[in-house]
């Protein structure tokens, strides 16, 4: 069996879990998530633990077993404490504002770039160059943060653009200026 898939998931206090055949419904203080189980994967709810079991020993089933267990674990954690990704906008004159529920970026284009609100995701702007993307679905939070980053990827020479907080950008060397010498 899968090493990750064999670990039981502890259901935190304040979280309710319903297993209905091929779906697992997880409710918590921040919301509700529904997870569709792949074929050959079963979830058993015992006391305050969830056990994810694979139907057979095939390689593909083992990998799906571990993946499904991790998706359920992320959902259990997410309904209690929302997942978040932090982004930084780096560059002279680059900034972001919250306009209603949409983000408005000024990132070096001739026009402001508007990023529309995504359902079940909240945006928070810290200062004028930091964005926090949060929500209960870890996969959706990561996907939205990536879409925001794609608006203006960090450039390879100066590092200007949108990046994850703490992300190191490997910069290329610029042009070498030849020393003015006597001819």
Summarize the structure.
With 183 residues, the chain is an alpha+beta fold.
Strand and helix layout:
Layout: E1 9-10, E2 16-20, E3 23-28, E4 31-36, E5 41-46, E6 49-54, H1 59-78, E7 83-90, E8 95-99, E9 102-106, E10 113-115, E11 121-126, E12 130-135, H2 138-149, E13 161-164
Antiparallel strand pairs: 1-6, 2-3, 3-4, 5-6, 7-12, 7-13, 8-9, 9-10, 11-12
Walk me through the structure.
- By secondary structure, the protein is an alpha+beta fold.
- The chain folds into two domains: 9-78, Alpha-Beta Complex (Outer Surface Protein A, domain 3); 83-164, Outer Surface Protein A, domain 3 (Alpha-Beta Complex), CATH 3.90.930.
- Helix content is 17%, strand content 37%.
- The protein has helices spanning 59-78, 138-149, and strands at residues 9-10, 16-20, 23-28, 31-36, 41-46, 49-54, 83-90, 95-99, 102-106, 113-115, 121-126, 130-135, 161-164.
- β2 (16-20) and β3 (23-28) form a beta hairpin.
- The model has no long low-confidence stretch (mean pLDDT 91).
- This is 50S ribosomal protein L6.
- One of its GO terms (cellular component) is cytosolic large ribosomal subunit.
Find the count of extended strands (DSSP E, 2+ residues): 13
**CATH architecture level-2 label of the largest domain:** Alpha-Beta Complex
Structural class by helix and strand composition? alpha+beta
* Percent in helix: 10-25%
Total separate domains? 2
Main sheet record: 4 strands, antiparallel
Mean pLDDT: 91
Q: CATH topology of the largest domain, anyone?
A: Outer Surface Protein A, domain 3
Number of helices: 2
CATH class descriptor of the largest domain = Alpha Beta
Please list the strands of the largest sheet in the order they lie side by side: 11-12-7-13
